[in-house]
Amino acid sequence: MYAIRKNNQKLFTPNAESVCRIPDNSTNSYLREDRLVEKFLKDIESKYNSAVAKIVANDIDAKCIYVIAGFVAYVLTCSPASMRLHSEPLKNIVEETARILDSKSVLPLPPPVLGGKNITELLKDEKVRIGINPKYPQAIGICSILSHIRMFGNFKWDILMNPFNNNPFFTSDFPVAIEKTDDHRILNRIIPLTPKLAIRIFPDISIDRKRVDFSFSGFRHSVRKLSLRDVMYINKLIVRCAETTVFFRDDYEWIPKFVKKNAGFCIESRTIRIPKGDGTLHVSSLEVREAGK
To answer: Which of 5, 56, 134, 137 is the most buried (most CB within 10 A)?
Structure first.
């Protein structure tokens, strides 16, 4: 396995433990059972290879769907990138709550050392900033993993077969790339599973979330053999959506240049504030954009 850092394009050869293991990352003191997600992962990690083999053989059953959807749900809730991304909407909510309370004179005045300004003014001037412990959105995510699995498992999937030995799929420290659609409310998810296999999950907002279950009766899929252009497009998204590090199987000469070209992009959380009554409606979404813009 080879790895390359996005910030400086430093190439190195790690072992899996040195780059994929974060001590106590899944331990969460906000939960009554702080290692709750580890019980869930025992079912996912041990069956990952057999689930991938079923996808390759086009012999997909409910157990296979559960394992792959579970892997995606875990990355989207517990990875460092997901903790960062889901902290931003919470920060915006806390800030808005502070403004509302301030407007109703519920909050005490800040200390004189802050210039006699109220919390609304201090937030505007960035003299005061709201901080979110990233473990809190992780805890919310862990509690919603099973709900994510039910939804992902009842969406349509594209099984993406890569026939090019010298252009394998990359992966990363956030291996769930997002893809824009014609509907601004919907983002497809592209997940590399092996160097030759990936899936694209198509969210369906028309699904009745109360009716979906683990039988995955709504699941449907198609198998696509990709062109070289398709493979390069997916690898571009994987690099752009990676948090800090891109991984790949073979040390081809073209890879560092390809990574460097796309390393200046990242996933960011964007919130639109819409005045509504006495407060503000926050609509949050994810987007891939050039860093710092």
So the answer is: 137
AA letter at 23: P
Counting Cα atoms < 13 Å in the Cβ hemisphere of 11 gives 15
Of 224, 234, 225, 232, nearest in space to 188 by CA: 234
DSSP state of 60: -
For 124-165, the pLDDT digits (tens) are 999 899 999 999 999 999 999 999 999 999 999 999 999 999
Report whether 241 contacts 178 (CB < 8 A): yes
Cα dist from 103 to 93, 96, 116, whole Å: 15, 11, 16
Query: Which pair of structure tokens corresponds to residue 34?
Result: 């702080």
Characterize 234-253 residue by residue with b for buried, 16 or more Cβ atoms within 10 angstroms of its Cβ, and e for exposed: bbbbbbbbbbbbbbbeeeee
How does pLDDT run across 199-210, given as a tens digit for each residue?
Answer: 999 999 999 888
CA pair distance 7, 33, nearest whole angstrom = 36
Per-domain residue ranges for the chain? 2-290
pTM: 0.91
